[in-house]
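tokens incoming
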């Protein structure tokens, strides 16, 4: 690893690491802790709230597979549920459901 140096004009940079233009790379945003989304509930700004009709669900798991926030889970009875603490209301689950058992409502705050 290159030696870390300090420059008042350019911030923190690493000697020997330069872009094609010759400008030293500066230290940008740093992730200090992995898995922080588990610590912080991210579903509180949702506009739409998906709801699964369990009587229509065929348990194909397409909603679970396609959820970008991993907010859909299978409960102990084998039914798919939505964890609203992390669901952002993108409705990809609804679009991917082959039997259209997922509907949505406007989120009420």
């Amino acid at each position: 690893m290159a030696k870390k140096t300090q420059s008042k004009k350019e911030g923190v940079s690493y000697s020997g690491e330069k872009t094609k233009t010759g400008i030293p790379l500066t230290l940008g945003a740093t992730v200090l802790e992995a898995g922080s989304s588990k610590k912080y509930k991210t579903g509180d700004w949702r506009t739409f709230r998906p709801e699964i009709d369990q009587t229509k669900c065929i348990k194909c798991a397409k909603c679970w597979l396609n959820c970008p926030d991993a907010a859909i889970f299978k409960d102990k009875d084998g039914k798919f549920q939505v964890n609203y603490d992390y669901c952002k209301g993108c409705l990809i689950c609804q679009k991917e459901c082959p039997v259209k058992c997922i509907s949505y409502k406007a989120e009420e705050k």
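note: The first strand starts at residue 4 and ends at 7.
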